[in-house]
Amino acid sequence: MYDVLAYVAYASETRTRTERVVKAKASIIAAFDDSKQREFIDFVLEKYVEDGVRELAEKKMRTLIALKYNTISDAAEEFGSARVIRETFVGFQKYLYQDNRGGGHSPMVGSRG
Predict the structure, then answer these.
(1) Do 52 and 17 form a contact (C-beta atoms < 8 A)?
(2) What is the DSSP string of the chain?
(3) For the residues 46-53, what does the mean pLDDT come to?
């Protein structure tokens, strides 16, 4: 749905979720060099490809952490803090919706709904 709206609003090329992930992967790897961050990002990207853009909503972060690490405490042990988890979860998303000029329109970052 986002791709259709982006096309209408910004004359953006529509892409599948898989295409977005493939296109963004190099930028994500360059931005997140910690292997634990990349592992979490890969997990979230798999869910995004399978289930859609709603997996990127901040309100889904707790559910995804529970699926991957069981608890927030377990995840914080892996990442060092809850702040780093959130920064990782929110931070990589901009690369999925970046256009060829480096800007982008992310549908979910900062979304509460």
Answers:
(1) yes
(2) -HHHHHHHHH-PPP--HHHHHHHHHHHHHHH---HHHHHHHHHHHHHHHHH-GGGGSGGGHHHHHHHHHSSHHHHHHHHSSHHHHHHHHHHGGGGTTB-TTS-B--SSTT---
(3) 96
**Using CA atoms, how far apart are residues 75 and 105, in angstroms rounded to an integer?**
28
pTM for the complete prediction? 0.76
- Name the amino acid, one letter, at 11: A
How far the first Cα of the chain sits from its last, in Å, is 15
Which residues, other chains included, contact 1 with Cβ-Cβ below 8 Å and sequence gap of 6+?
A: 53
Closest CA to 14 of 27, 23, 1: 1
How far is residue 76's CA from residue 78's CA, in Å, rounded to a whole number? 5
Confidence class for position 14, pLDDT limits 50, 70, 90: confident
Taking 50 as the threshold, does the pLDDT of residue 109 lie above it? no
Q: What does the domain layout of the chain look like in residue ranges?
A: 15-95
**Cβ(86)–Cβ(77) under 8 Å?**
no
